């Protein structure tokens, strides 16, 4: 096994982000063409996650063609790979109704991209499974992920008061179910802290959904999360705390920092504490965030970069080029991804982070806090 991370001691550098967007998307369609990508995984991994990246990037790059096709055409091709196998998808069930569910993800993408009211209704009808008392609360399989999907769809219906109200009412029901859940929130019997399975992820999804109504109600719980920060600047994966080990989006400082950056404006009373936590968290990421796992959003350099300020952000991204990944692999320093095509685990996510750099977008995680 390679070491967990390598030393961040090189001078600050940058690469041309537009060229890297092109290169990343080209690798994506040639190394992981639609016909060869797994159909399942929702927005997290697989065909739908790749389609989602192309869908979101298409309006940012309307004239860009990859291997002769526009980004929208590639999105449709990856979506078809999933849709052709839709009969085999189990669909949302209690405890499996977050961003990894393919039916929910396809409904959300369809509803948002085509303003399809039937798909909106189908999506909100699944709230019965989501608010069931036995359901989960986290992002991948639970209510927090469903809240993200609803926000994504809602953004496409700003001119439709009736549909907005339907989605808002559903959001309220889901948030009430989360807040009525026993504390601390648990997943698989453990109290997680991080963005993907834990409390900061749940709080972030609630606050971004309706900050005016819920931020104040969650301030005390957010304040407690801030107290869990180690002297190193990192956060534990779970409490009671175990070893200070993981520095990545799913567990550790990067996920907490990226979350805090998107919700801190709604917690003015905690501003100084949040800013201090972000500063210390970034110091930890700069020291221990150049991971040897294949660069990706969930547990790799691409995601860690999103927690940093501009120069450091672009510097971290220099380690996510195709050339650097090949060099790391050749030197035996690379731990390969199990979903190398995906938004959260591979090339599609790398393309997103390069687009963030190229277009000067807010440093957000697509599929988490971009809406």
TrEMBL record:
Signal peptide: none
Gene Ontology MF: a single term: metal ion binding
InterPro entries with a match to the protein in the record: 6hp_glycosidase-like_sf (IPR012341), LANC-like (IPR007822)
Keyword field contains Metal-binding: yes
PANTHER family (alphabetical): LANC-LIKE PROTEIN, LANC-LIKE PROTEIN 3
Keywords: Metal-binding, Zinc
Protein's UniProt keywords contain Magnesium: no
Biological processes per GO annotation: carbohydrate metabolic process; peptide modification
Record-level GO cellular component terms: plasma membrane
Listed name of the protein: Uncharacterized protein
